[in-house]
Amino acid sequence: MPTIEPVLGPEDIKRVPIHELYSLAARIRALIIATVTRNGGHLASNLGVVELTIALHRVFSTPVDTLVWDVGHQCYTHKILTGRAEAFSGIRRQDGLSGFPKRSESVHDAFDVGHASTSISSALGMLAARESLGNPGSVVAVIGDGALTGGLAWEAMSHAGNLGMPLIVVLNDNAMSISRNVGALSSYLSRLSATVRYQRVRRLIDRIILGVPWLGPRVHPWVLRMKRAVKAMFFKESLFADLGFEYAGPIDGHNIQVLCDVLGEARAIRKPVVVHVVTKKGKGFPAAEKNPSAYHGVAPAHLSAPVPTSSDPIDPATDTGPGRPTFTEAFGAAMMELAQEDPRLVAVCAAMTNGTGLAGFQALYPDRLFDVGIAEEHAVTFSAGLAAGGLRPVTAIYSTFMQRALDQVHHDVSLSSLPVIFAVDRAGAVPDDGETHQGIYDVQAFRAVPGLSIIAPASAFEMAAALRWALSVSTPTMVRYPKAVCPAERPAFAQPFEAGRGVFVRKSEADASILFVASGALVDEALQAADLCASSGLAADVYHLRFLKPLDMEHVIKLAQGYRLVIIAEEGVTTGSVAADLAAAIRLAAAFPNNGSQRTEVCAVGFDEKPLPHGTRGQLLAAAGLSSEALARRALSVCTRPGAMTLVRAAGSVEERDRASYPAAKTLGGA
Ligand SMILES: Cc1ncc(C[n+]2csc(CCOP(=O)(O)OP(=O)(O)O)c2C)c(N)n1
Questions:
Q1: Alpha-carbon distance 336 to 316, whole Å?
Q2: Is 79 tagged catalytic?
Q3: Helix (H) / strand (E) containing 22
């Protein structure tokens, strides 16, 4: 493994001669590439900010000064330079370093993050607290041009300009979000960054003038003013200035000397300032420089393989899984089919065209896909507008990022009963990215939204059927599905959708004593659990809810009667879950059994509220008691205690199951 000695902590970097910082940058790059190759992670974004991070730690002194990273996926060099070089080998592994900044991990990590566009708000809050308490130090927010497309960033810019406190906003402009950045702001920034060459010439002129003894320093301020006037005629850089910020840049983000000079100046002026830094995403790794999108997030041990990402365009024909698409791919394929049938159908996404499986749709129907940038709230309200205008928008957003748009779903879509369809990807246990990216909170957040239907399809066929059902109604619908390969099709999935009703996917001829109730991909876990129970001589049935809302409770309560044990599994937190409500209702009904029928024991299984750490999907499901083995074990512990352990061994390890359920070629593409 490459080492970065003698730099062990942030203070060491101030002692290294400036010309040696370039060899340090090279060693850090080698370390990042070697580690991400093994562990997976965000590669291209991190390679782009090595020099910038070195310069930041050379000029500022954390934790007295505060560095706030936006999204936080680009914090690897920061971790390496702040005493975590050795621990870096365990990044994104169970019990290892987080792939994002984490306050509990280091005093140098100022703010927990993983979602975009928060840095300027949180940094401004920290600065206001610092000023109020009389604490020393500067506060720096580092935000990418992608994250700057988020409205939250602009709410904070407006507030910061108004407060006039000396907030330093470093804009890391690589012209890329995960894919190429979109929007008028992005075009504005590229017009500004076109002046990088001009800046180089300017610095050369400065050096020449300042080099003239006595006269140089006296003439220089006049030349500066003249240059500004000339520049203002050609380049409109008034956006930041009009908001009350000083603007420095654009500057070459790989020139450590220039970065240090400008950051030093920014610290000195004691006003809000934007330092516009132009970097190359993927810098130093040719394949990533050429195709930064493909190397935004990579899977373990796949850098030498063809460049697959979960963001790659869908091609079911080349599916390398067990012959079945992922839910994301099934969604993309269904969208292309439905678009042919219904000319009103359009797709909306928030900077995640590839990740949400819409690249194929975009290629076929470029005019029917709206990528709004990292702006989930806008994506939802914009979709409400599209629906109000007569189109049928399908808005694809990861579960974790939908959290931002709760009010928009409620106020802008639901209250007007607009037929927006939400495709909520990564709903449930999300492998690799850790707690900021888990999709386990959407059900309880959105089930309270009036008139919103929620469906959890269990297969690729059901995905298309769910979308078709949603298009057939005139009210909003949410279709939620995990980052997983679609389980095998079952005859029951072909039954037509009926609002509020599910289907028996497995029903024994003889009376079974156990009923598993599940939805989405967990139906398959329940089916395997039922197999395990059967091999132990206990018959178990499986009921797939399909609809988490509306839900015909009475119907399920009736079904549950007659079973000795009902286990309800849901891929979300148990607090406020459908499973918990259903269990309570069944329990209540079972407390007063009709006709002297046997009592039914019932339990709801789901995730705990506490944040879910890094882990594979299999590990996370198993830890929550949602894997087939855990479900079977639970059933058997109630019904036949002695059989439990043998069954678990028969089912194979969690790791084996993981490999089968989401092949490595599909695990790429962190968000
Ligand atoms: C609210 C939210 N939406 C979407 C994402 C997924 N995401 C992670 S990084 C990223 C692109 C960020 O681009 P930029 O800020 O320019 O950083 P870069 O990777 O280019 O350095 C996106 C869309 C997210 N983290 N948070």
A1: 13
A2: no
A3: helix 21-39
Instruction: Work out which ligand 1 atom sits closest to the CA atom of 436.
Output: 25
Indicate whether residue 75 lines ligand 1 (CB < 6 A). no
Ligand 1 close to Cβ of residue 149 (< 6 A): no
From CA 369, how far away is CA 374, in angstroms rounded? 15
Distance CA 520, CA 457 (A): 5
DSSP 8-state secondary structure symbol assigned to residue 326: B
| Residue 46 CB less than 6 A away from ligand 1 | no
The 10s digit of each residue's pLDDT in 483-540 is: 999 999 999 999 999 999 999 999 988 789 999 999 999 999 999 999 999 999 999 9
Look at residue 559 in the predicted model and tell me its pLDDT: 93
Beta bridge partners of 549: 454
Average pLDDT over residues 32-47: 95
Does the beta carbon of 116 sit less than 6 angstroms from any atom of ligand 1? yes
Region 15-30 average pLDDT: 94
Using only the alpha carbons of the chain, give its radius of gyration.
Answer: 27
State yes or no: is 270 an active-site residue.
no
Torsion over CA: 102, 103, 104, 107 (sign) = positive
Tracing tokens 């203002």 back to the chain, one arrives at 232
Residue with CA closest to ligand 1 atom 17: 144
Q: Which helix (H) or strand (E) holds 68?
A: strand 66-69
Asked if 498 and 555 touch (Cβ cutoff 8 Å), the reply is no
Rounded-to-integer distance, Cα 149 and Cα 157, Å: 12
Q: Which of 283, 404, 426, 546 is catalytic?
A: 404
State the Cα angle at 457 between 550 and 610, rounded to 5°.
80
Q: Where are the beta strands (DSSP E) in 241-327?
A: 246-252, 273-278
**Catalytic site residue from 281, 447, 480, 483:** 281
**pLDDT confidence tier of residue 313, bands split at 50, 70 and 90:** very low
CA–CA distance, 37 with 40 (Å, rounded to integer) = 6
Q: Give distance in angstroms: CA of 484 to centre of ligand 1.
A: 22
Phi/psi for 98 (5° steps) reads -75, 155
pLDDT higher than 50, residue 108: yes
Please choose from 36, 70, 71, 295 the residue to mutate so as to test ligand 1's pocket, defined by most ligand atoms within 8 A of CB.
71
Q: pLDDT tens, 528-549?
A: 999 999 999 999 999 999 999 9
pLDDT band at residue 461 under the 50/70/90 scheme: very high
273: three-class secondary structure by DSSP: strand
Among the listed residues 376, 435, 570, 629, the single catalytic one is 376
Contacts of 19 (CB under 8 A, 6+ apart): none
Reported as a pLDDT band with limits 50, 70 and 90, residue 194 is: low
Confirm whether 324 is a catalytic residue: no
The response to whether residue 281 sits with its C-beta less than 6 Å from ligand 1 reads yes
- In this prediction, residue 379 has a pLDDT band, given cuts at 50, 70 and 90, of very high
Amino acid 244: pLDDT = 94
Token readout for 265 is 């100046």
